[in-house]
């Protein structure tokens, strides 16, 4: 008699998930360009299962030129309930929403879409809230801290807004795209809870240093800022999930800094996105 090998927990979960798929399964996409690097589909699908929902999250690789057509096509499927948005579509997807949260409207960027009653899309942005929650998990609440943020894109904009709303004493923003940086600085400064200024690649004098750019995903990438100026008292965070430990985070740890990875951030963002997609 041939004895089969016992299933690992991961294999058992995969088999259970496969067996549960049917025509009644609700569909959610994560759309980006590229998309192979994202870790979201498994985690979000598992989160749906944990909530007792028959739903899955699957990746869609869509170029910017075809994004609007793709969203229109996906909207025709009546079993598509949500779309998670990643680089570089967070700004463009805002214009494809019929409604948004006040936060997303202010930032003009979204990372999650769910259906309105009429089938149109309602968008919100959770990157910033998730980042701040992950900071607090690491023992670094942002209130009263002087922060440098590198990157004024979709994730960077949301993190900048969340840091300001969480009570940082000052926020400096650095991005080589001076027009995009200036627009974000001006909009955040208009809120007037703290000074918001134009920063540089030099982290000297800051308590919190954040990389909200894709710089560090490739081995050939330079550092997003001058890591030689990092000091042990600084808290350093990064939004990149692959590689798990970016050169920036590795350099910060070598300097004795408390750090937070993109995976730490995404665990918190994922919970917020799933609650939103489930209508909570």
Question: What secondary-structure arrangement, pairings included, does this model have?
Answer:
Elements: H1 9-20, E1 26-32, H2 40-50, E2 55-61, H3 67-75, E3 80-85, E4 99-100, H4 102-107, E5 112-115, E6 121-124, H5 127-137, E7 146-150, H6 154-165, E8 170-174, H7 178-189, E9 196-198, E10 208-211, E11 235-238, H8 247-254, E12 258-260, H9 262-277
Parallel strand pairs: 1-2, 1-3, 4-6, 7-8, 7-10, 8-9, 10-11, 11-12
Antiparallel strand pairs: 3-5, 5-6
Helix pairs in contact: 2-9, 5-6, 5-9
Structure description:
By secondary structure, the protein is an alpha/beta fold. The protein contains 9 helices and 12 strands. The longest helix has 16 residues, at 262-277.
Give structural attributes.
280 residues; alpha/beta; six-stranded parallel sheet; 9 helices
Strand residue content: 15-25%
**Whole-Å distance between the termini?**
51 Å
The DSSP helix count reads 9
**Taking all residues together, what is the mean pLDDT?**
93
Largest sheet: 6 strands, mixed
Number of strands: 12
- SSE ordering: HEHEHEEHEEHEHEHEEEHEH
| Structural class by SSE content | alpha/beta
The level of helicity is 25-40%
Q: Residue ranges: pLDDT <50 for 5 or more in a row?
A: none
Computed Rg: 20 Å
Structure summary:
It is built from nine helices and twelve strands. It has helices at residues 9-20, 40-50, 67-75, 102-107, 127-137, 154-165, 178-189, 247-254, 262-277, and strands at 26-32, 55-61, 80-85, 99-100, 112-115, 121-124, 146-150, 170-174, 196-198, 208-211, 235-238, 258-260.
């Amino acid at each position: 008699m041939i004895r089969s090998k016992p299933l690992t927990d991961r294999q058992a979960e995969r088999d259970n998930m496969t067996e549960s798929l049917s025509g009644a399964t609700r569909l959610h996409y994560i759309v980006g360009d590229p998309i192979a690097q994202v870790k979201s589909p498994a985690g979000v699908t598992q989160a749906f299962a944990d909530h007792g929902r028959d739903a899955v999250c699957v990746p869609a690789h869509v170029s910017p030129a075809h994004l609007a057509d793709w969203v229109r096509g996906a909207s025709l499927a009546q079993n598509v309930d949500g779309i998670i948005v990643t680089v570089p579509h967070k700004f463009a997807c805002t214009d494809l929403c019929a409604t948004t949260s006040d936060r997303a409207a202010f930032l003009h960027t979204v990372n999650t879409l769910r259906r309105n009653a009429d089938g149109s899309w309602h968008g919100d942005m959770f990157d910033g809230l998730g980042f701040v929650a992950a900071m607090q998990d690491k023992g670094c609440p942002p209130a009263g801290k002087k922060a440098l943020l590198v990157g004024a894109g979709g994730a960077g904009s949301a993190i900048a807004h969340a840091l300001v709303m969480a009570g940082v004493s000052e926020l400096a923003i650095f991005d080589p795209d001076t027009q995009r940086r200036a627009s974000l600085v001006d909009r955040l400064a208009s809120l007037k809870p703290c000074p918001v200024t134009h920063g540089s690649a030099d982290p000297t004098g800051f308590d919190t240093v954040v990389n909200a750019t894709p710089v560090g995903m490739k081995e050939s990438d330079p550092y997003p800022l001058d890591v030689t100026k990092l000091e042990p008292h600084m808290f350093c965070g990064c939004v990149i999930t692959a590689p798990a430990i970016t050169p920036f985070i590795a350099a910060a740890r070598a300097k004795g800094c408390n750090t937070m990875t993109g995976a730490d951030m995404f665990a918190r963002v994922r919970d917020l996105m799933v609650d939103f997609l489930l209508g909570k």
